[in-house]
Write a structure and sequence with these properties.
Blueprint (H helix, E strand, L loop, with lengths): L1 H16 L41 H8 L3 H5 L12 H4 L4 E4 L6 E4 L13 H12 L3 E2 H4 L5 H5 L10 E4 L3 E2 L9 E2 L10 H12 L3 E6 L10 H14 L4 E5 L7 H8 L5 E3 L9 H4 L6 H14 L4 E8 L5 H13 L4 E6 L16 H14 L3 E4 L8 H15 L21 H7 L2
Helix pairs in contact: 8-9, 9-10, 10-12
Length: 432
């Protein structure tokens, strides 16, 4: 009797707590469970209209909706036609107040014609990695050249241009316009640098290369022999490569100038930087305008068919008369190529920009230089001593010379070279 009662109780409990069996004829479904990513199905009580879920309007949205449209913002007066700025408005310099509250000072904004893109691209990275791998330096980086994105960012490394800076990255002079590091006792020269430089340049397969260097007044020869050895190594590995050397003044030692000029280079460059009157304020006290003229004259004297080149910065406070006189002096010593560029202040520790020269003024000085008899003149706000367009022209001139062609035939306005061997005596008289 007890067993029958316990069995009936267990049967009732089993029925109360057991899971109901599913029929095999009906598919499995559990309406109470859904996937986490599944969108909920709209119900009869939930409105599907998006208008009921919109956020309430704010005062900012109201002001934005009532303001000008994007087309009206980028055009003038909503007419749908963009009005071009006049030349005066386009070249007008703008100022801004900078600094903390109560100490704000006016600052002139960089003109539009001096703004350049940030250097990017695979070719830029490749060249930079090659230089770092061989422990080489470039004036493009050390002097913060604004054209580095154009010169290093070509479609191929053979189309790129990099100005290699020899003898380290530390200069013994302190010019007020230059951002290269300075020291009275720089590190010693790398004896492997000539070989590494020649290997890197031959690997790139360039047709034209520019070498420059820091001033090394701590060395007996100013680094001239190191410079000449590098040029000789390059010519050994790549005989057809054209080499331009942008040298210092070697403290006025003209024997060292002649040594470099006879090392196999194709273009001898030395920058006077500015007019004679401003040289003491712009350059290191050990550099003078007359000393630079003697350097250029000595290079031309030892090798009359050598192309000589110099560069002048504008915007330092020079006058038109001073600049014309400087060009006359340069032409008198047989300088073939001159470049004009805008001085741009590297840091607040350097001298201020006196004036941002407009592109029209640069064009004017280009025409004047050509009329004076210079073989070529590159003139523009972003032109630097090592400039791709100028290098292309000089490369063409040198190839025409090698083939017996006319040197000035590649550009219509390029005047004839007039410096002959018999004129060197007159040149020496004009340079004290």
């Amino acid at each position: 009797m007890v067993r029958r009662k316990m069995a009936s109780t267990a049967s009732r409990l089993r029925c109360l707590h057991s899971v109901p069996r599913l029929s095999l004829s009906t598919p499995f479904s559990n309406p109470s469970r859904t996937f986490a990513t599944a969108a909920p199905e709209p119900s009869a009580t939930t409105p599907t209209s998006s208008s009921s879920r919109t956020r309430p309007q704010t005062s900012f949205k109201d002001r934005l909706a009532s303001g000008p449209s994007f087309d009206e913002f980028v055009t003038s007066g909503g007419s749908g036609v963009e009005q071009a700025l006049s030349p005066e408005d386009a070249l007008q310099l703008k100022t801004a107040m900078v600094g903390p509250a109560g100490k704000k000072k006016p600052m002139t904004r960089l003109p539009e014609w001096l703004k350049t893109p940030v250097p990017v691209g695979e070719n830029y990275k490749k060249i930079k990695n090659d230089l770092r791998g061989l422990n080489l330096h470039t004036v493009c980086e050390e002097a913060r050249c604004p054209n580095i994105s154009d010169c290093w960012g070509g479609s191929s490394k053979s189309a790129a241009t990099a100005t290699i800076m020899l003898m380290g990255d530390t200069c013994t002079r302190g010019c007020r316009f230059c951002s290269v590091k300075t020291s009275k006792a720089p590190p010693p020269l790398d004896p492997h640098e000539p070989e590494h430089t020649a290997e890197a340049l031959s690997r790139w397969g360039l047709g034209y290369v520019v070498l420059t260097s820091v001033d090394r007044d701590d060395l007996a020869d100013g680094g001239a022999r190191h410079f000449a050895e590098t040029i000789s190594k390059i010519k050994q590995k790549a005989p057809t490569m054209l080499v331009e050397a942008l040298t210092g003044d070697y403290a006025g030692d003209l024997d060292m100038v002649r040594h470099v000029a006879q090392s196999g280079l194709d273009v001898y460059a030395h920058n006077v930087e500015t007019v004679e009157a401003l040289t003491p304020q712009v350059r290191d006290r050990r550099a003078t305008f007359r000393q630079s003229l003697r350097v250029l004259a000595a290079a031309k004297q030892v090798k009359p068919d050598l192309i000589t080149k110099t560069s002048i910065m504008l915007g330092l406070g020079e006058t038109e008369a001073q600049l014309s006189h400087a060009l006359q002096e340069l032409r008198a010593v047989g300088v073939d190529v001159v470049t004009f560029g805008q001085y741009m202040r590297p840091t607040k520790r350097h001298m201020k920009v006196h004036e941002y020269v407009t592109p029209a003024v640069f064009d004017m000085w280009r025409e004047r230089a050509l009329d004076m008899g210079f073989l070529y003149c590159a003139s523009g706000p972003l032109v630097r001593s090592s400039y791709k367009a100028g290098e292309s022209f000089i490369e063409n001139v040198l190839k025409k010379r090698a083939g017996g062609g006319s040197a000035g035939a590649s550009v219509d306005k390029a005047p004839k070279e007039r410096l002959l061997e018999g004129e060197m005596a007159e040149v020496e008289k004009r340079v004290p």
